[in-house]
Design brief:
single chain; mainly alpha; Dna Ligase, domain 1; two-stranded antiparallel ribbon; 2 strands; transmembrane helix
């Protein structure tokens, strides 16, 4: 046997050994690890009915609203009667991960924040913001203009 065959044999043996070691590390050692992996993957791929989705969406929106700091009223020195503040409509939408601009426009139209979906979509395209819409909860007070809606959708959420 010459040296060349010896080195080829050692090299092939090392490669086969490394492949076997990788195969051993990939296989779970017990069924508990396999079950926990299956449960984790099944939770992330769960399909919700429309009712379940709406219920989860409402709880998520409520959690996000609860996280926002509530303003504390300062005590006034003069107890003069103040006129009743105008009650403004507050609209909250949740933009899900991987929601397209079309999906967001449909949500805005369904909440009656925008009247003309096509005009709003054209404005997004014109400003090149169709891929810049941020995911998460967006809150709109009163009847915002198209510019205010777009600014709210593309600004980073705090």
């Amino acid at each position: 046997m010459n040296r060349k065959q010896l080195w080829i044999g050692i090299g092939v043996g090392m490669i086969i050994g490394a492949l076997l070691l990788q195969l051993m590390l990939l296989v779970p050692r017990d069924s508990e690890a396999m079950n926990s992996e299956n449960q984790a993957s099944s939770n992330s791929n769960k399909v919700y009915s429309e009712e379940e989705f709406n219920q989860k969406l409402q709880t998520r929106l409520q959690e996000e609203l609860d996280k926002q700091p509530k303003p504390t009223p300062e005590p006034s020195v003069n107890p003069t009667p103040t006129p009743a503040p105008e009650i403004s409509k507050q609209t909250v939408i949740f933009v899900a991960y991987r929601a397209t601009s079309d999906d967001v426009v449909k949500m805005l139209a369904s909440t009656e924040l925008i009247n003309d979906s096509d005009a709003f979509m054209k404005e997004l395209v014109k400003r090149k913001l169709t891929n810049k819409i941020r995911t998460g909860v967006h809150t709109f007070n009163g009847s915002p203009t198209i510019d205010e809606i777009i600014d709210n959708l593309v600004k980073p959420n705090n």
